[in-house]
Amino acid sequence: MSIFGPSYHDVWQAFSEEVGGTFERGGFAKASKMRVGEGPFTIALETYTISSGEDSDTYTRFRAYFREQGALRFGAGRRSFLSKIAALFGKRYVTTGHAAFDEVMVLWGNDEEQLKAYFNDARFCQLLAELRPYQLSIARNKPLLGPQLPEGVVEFCLLHDKLVKEPERLRKLLEVMRLALQRLVKVGIAVNVDPGLAP
Length: 199
Description:
- By secondary structure, the protein is α+β, with helices and mostly antiparallel strands.
- The protein has one domain.
- Helices cover about 30% and strands about 30% of the residues.
- Strands 1, 2, 3, 4, 5, 6, 7, 8 and 9 form a nine-stranded antiparallel sheet that branches.
- Helix 5 packs antiparallel against helix 6.
- The longest helix has 20 residues.
- It is globular, with a radius of gyration of 17 Å.
């Protein structure tokens, strides 16, 4: 342990043991990663770094793949000055009907009714309003390098804009991911089968 407290590697390894997951400790060229099951799906917890010139930002990222039914795509993020500007220029946001969520988050996508059905869960919206993740999305990944996802398989992703080392926050973020995947199946967005690969 350093003078700054335990490293995220140590915290995530302990968290992995707590939730029955597996943990791969990274090194100089490879980040640490935790994986844990949720029904037929695999949730990965990892770091994600975005570089812009001389600066870089490291996020905590949860991901899971699933086999889709239909083609729902959506994004959600924190309500901000930029989201207000986007609305002024015509960007349409979806309201969920859950006031705590709608006050601090914005939501957009390609099927308003399906989105409202998906977010029609009080605990799910309560946790999202409390944690205010940087981004929540369903999308097909388009990697610059490496293989594309198989046809019909898409990614659910949650980004949090700091390196999370607090066990209670990790528990709540994992709960969000579990609820997210359960809701995908319940509303008929995801097929409740193993997608055939893990993040």
